[in-house]
Write a structure and sequence with these properties.
Blueprint (H helix, E strand, L loop, with lengths): L6 E8 L2 H15 L3 E8 L11 H18 L3 E7 L8 H14 L3 E4 L7 H18 L13 E6 L12 E4 L4 H8 L3 H5 L5 H15 L5 E5 L13
Parallel strand pairs: 1-2, 1-4, 2-3, 4-5
Antiparallel strand pairs: 5-7, 6-7
The protein binds zinc ion.
Zinc ion binds next to strand 1.
Amino acid sequence: MDRKKKHIMAVGAHIGDAELTCGKTLAVHSLLGDAVTTVAVTAGERGAPPGRDTAEFAAYNKKCAEEFIGALGGNFICLGYPDGEAPDNEELRRRLCDVIRAEKPDVILTHWQNSLHKDHSVTSRAVEDAVFYAALRDFERESPPHWAEGPYYAENWEDSHGFVPYIFIDVSAGYDLWFEHIQKLWLTNNSPWFKYRDYYDALSRSRGVLIHKERAECFAVSPYSMKLVKDSF
Ligand SMILES: [Zn+2]
């Protein structure tokens, strides 16, 4: 039976967030022939190493993000807010709503609600509201309403407070594709502050062991979605 093609969209606060936390899942869907999109609210330019110009670093980071998702056959969208200043306002929610309506993803992935980084928690709240707005009839925007599943919340070490892994995606098939192309991101190998690649590489192995697979990526769901329905015990 033919499988219906899907479109998976991962929204991160900074370039690197979506690629590192959801990248293996995106790679799996790419290999299935699905559409994949990464969205960054900011270019993450304040993560530039000392002495590097932030405007130049923003452009470089965007090129890295385009190359990563390009290798998976997908598209990258940067909303271009200043790093560290993702606004917790209606404008961001409406811009994300417009992206969802224009791109028509089937599934949306983003940050968990609690984070040590303000841009992450703002992005999580804004994406939740944007998914709601996008589906609303009579919410007048340029594009017509679109309902997307989610958001599902990615496992990010910066967003760990209260994160409960609920969905385990077997990403074994996408691991090699991810590992090859995640190297395109500056953050992966070069950050003096955190070994991002090592962490997300090891995390996928340890999550994989829990489901008896080589590799897994985990996602949390809204507590309101946690219903296990049975006819009887
Ligand atoms: Zn981030």
